[in-house]
Amino acid sequence: MRDIANVAVREMRMGFRNPWAYTFMALFTLFMFSLLVINAQDYVTGYSGASSTMLNLGLYLLPLMALMLGSFSLTGEKEDGNWELLTTYPLGTLSFLSGKYLGLAVVLLVIVAFGFGLSGAVGWLTGGGLEPVTYWHLLVFAICVSLFFLGAAMLIGTMARNRWQALTASVAVWFFLIIAWPSVLIAVLGMLPYPWIKPAVTVLTFLNPAELTRLYTIVQLGGGATLGPEYYEWVGWIRSVWGPPVFWAIMLIWVSIAIMISYLVWERGRGRG
Amino acid sequence: MADKFVRFEAVHKVFNGKTVIGEVNLAAEAGEVVALCGGNGAGKSTLLRMLAGIIRPTSGQITIGGLRWENDRRRYARQLGYMPDDYRFSAGLTALETMLFWARLRGLGEARAREVLELVGLSDTGRKPVTSFSKGMRQRVLFAQALLAKPPLIVMDEPTNGLDPYWMGSFVQLVRQAAAGGQTILFSTHQLQIAEALADRIVFLRDGHVVLDGTKSEIREKYGASGLQEAYGSIFGLPTAGL
After folding, report:
1. Cβ-based interface (< 8 Å): residues of A facing B
2. What angle do CA B78, B83, B87 make, to 5 degrees?
């Protein structure tokens, strides 16, 4: 635990002194203000056209931020020779990766909290803010998307040899999971026999953290009816008392699997040398 | 070789089908200073990186105080301090923050981090990030981290690159102090005068093979040369002027 905390503190220090973090913070805050303007035309309570726009716009920006910050941080360790030096220390690979994840998560969550906090305060002062419950669900959505994609970033940073490869892979993953997903999903489902469609939707949704979090938030905001018949069971469990803990457990498992795969790959490299 | 502290036994390394280290047998006693010399691509850094546990030998075994990396990585790592040749410091961190991170990984506190920075004359660099330091200053930070836990073995890859004459002298003194305290030191260098000034034993490598291993006096005796540079020239068939 002491090693994890040590690596996490170093990551936070580097993160908060990294100009990229402030660029993302400024961008995210600007993004939140633009959502405030959108919201000012249609005071949001629960799921609406405005909150749907907010979700979709959040899905464009946050995953890209998480993927880039996370994967660059890991490839940087390899490129700069820091990982090589750390292999001469009594430091476990899992402690290193967990510390990196935790430190990066704090940096990302501060960026998200700053954007939400500032826009929330301005919205509240001007009377154009979101209804508190909607605001809360959107904040949880932003946190979850960031944490999920930071897990994916660990995988990308593990596989990529340098920052350029990480950038290319991050954009590819972002494009596939965020932009192309609906079309790909429809195309894949169209090729399957009818009885397979529901289980396929479930499996594919679990594989895409962006889609999973979007569905969860839409249902939590009361917009489950807009999702279509394939998702009725999803609406049921998400709205139940077990919805939030099950969702958080899924996220924990997803991120743990991402870190464990990264661990196995780093360990393989360490063992083979 | 049973009483040697560091041992390379029939160590062989192949990278992408190319043999970079032939069958190397090498040993160092506790408190001994061994210099690895040779041209570019001779295999000096590869040997040191294998000893530090960064890369694995394709065959053969390496032990430090009887410990093998494969058997207990953590204990093995506690036996050594490693100074890399090629390293880029993390942006934004000061010398103290960087050292403190390394110190904590070794279970040490701020007092020791400050102490080693003091040793290499970098205790007053304040809020200045290490990335803004000169090459020589960064080398001193790396040297300081290798000394942190007072390990029984210090492994250094080209440690004097970028050092000015004043710090070169201090470096020689610090290494001698460490050896006098019983620490074993293995380092690679292109600078024969540093090898001559520091090492008890000098190992010449060529194409991944040890071509000569002996004390300075043994080398002189064997080659009838007046100095190490003469011996180097004789072994590698090079003119000695300017080496």
Report:
1. 2-3, 6, 9-10, 13-14, 17-18, 76, 79-82, 84-92, 271-273
2. 125
